[in-house]
Write a structure and sequence with these properties.
It is built from 12 helices and 19 strands. The protein is of the alpha/beta class. The chain has 2 domains: about 280 residues, 3-Layer(aba) Sandwich (Aminopeptidase); about 120 residues, no CATH class. Strands 1, 2, 3, 4, 6, 9, 11, 12, 15, 16, 17, 18 and 19 form a 13-stranded mixed beta sheet that branches. A 4-stranded mixed beta sheet has the order 5-10-8-7, covered by helices on one side. Helix 1 crosses helix 7 and helix 7 crosses helix 11.
Length: about 425
Amino acid sequence: MKKLFFLALAGMATLQLSAQNIDKIITREYTDHLIKTLSADDMQGRATFTPGIDKAATFIESEFKKIGLQPLTGEKTFRQTFYRYKLTPEPVKLVIDGKTIAQDNILLAGRAISVTFNQTGTEVIKLDTAKAFLQQYRTLARGTKKIVLVDNKFAADFKRYKSFSGRPAIVDEKDLQNPSQDATIFVLGINEAKEFNVEVKSKSEKVPLFNVAGMLPGKSKAKELVVFSGHYDHLGIMKSVDGDSIANGADDDASGTTAMIALAKYYKAQKNNERTLIFVAFTAEEIGGFGARYFSEKLNPDDVVTMFNIEMIGKDSKFGKNTAFITGYERSDFGKILQKNLTGTEFTFHPDPYPEQNLFYRSDNATLAALGVPAHTISTDKIDIDKLYHTVKDEYSSLDVENILSTIKAIAKSATTIVNGTDTPTRIPKLKQ
């Protein structure tokens, strides 16, 4: 009985010490430093292939070095570099019923390298003015050649999506060898299209991309991996609004990247990770999740115990203060383990309240989740009503830093038994290929 008493006392002391440590390690000043730097104007919105994203990567590397992380096994630096092909679309040539359509009224969706088509066998669709633009756009942007006629009612939505739809796309070498014929053309202000000719061309260029990744080697269970991640890329320079053209991406996803770095600092100080911890800032999430896909290909998914992907934690969630939601909550017992470890605190994790958004497969957790890993995204974003999402207004001044702090600390505490090897989340059913 005495032994049990002293063990319990020691456990309580450890928890109390941990609580004290976390407030000293993950401070307001530290998180402010990280997120302000990542979302500053001089990062130019961190778009893939720009000097801004290179500058952001250099900053993250410097933080990893200060913390004392090691490069991933097989890597000499914190940059996990890989190569893909950048497709830069040229202006679409579109003639409808003898009239050449102005570029301002053409929005191209798809990754066709070179394709021409006309009305023969091509579907012409009119957007339903009674439905929201975004939902129709997402549905129609997929698939093969078609013309979509957009009423002027949707002019503002059309221009917003056009501002980043013409950005370069990324493809693999196999995509160049078997080029896609996908080219959906959205046309603003045209009511019918009886005869038309379309010509789409893109220039291809081999380019480097880079995740920034470091690790804390585990002790007794070093072969078992726990991943903490966020994506550090964003949209870069957009069409100016009130004199501002920089999409700073403070919430999306400087907040998640900040959390990932802060967690690395915390667990390094704890020195009690039995499992190997990997901390990674993904590139190219906004243009197809290429960083996460490459990272996942370099791992044996059976070695990955779980993944904490953190995206957009800059504001209160739908459930109020000291709450966050977990995508795919019902697919494993990941969320239940986290909540168990928060017993006695005021923070609660909830299932994803936006199942219609399919968020589970829209972030960087998706590739590992498809391979059976209990890989989940933690977020607080009210995605259904977030008016700052993918706009130049997503700036530091819009954030609730206290919300970021409470969420980071909750993740740190809730992950404890996974980090020390006493809890293992159940696997997720693999997606059928």
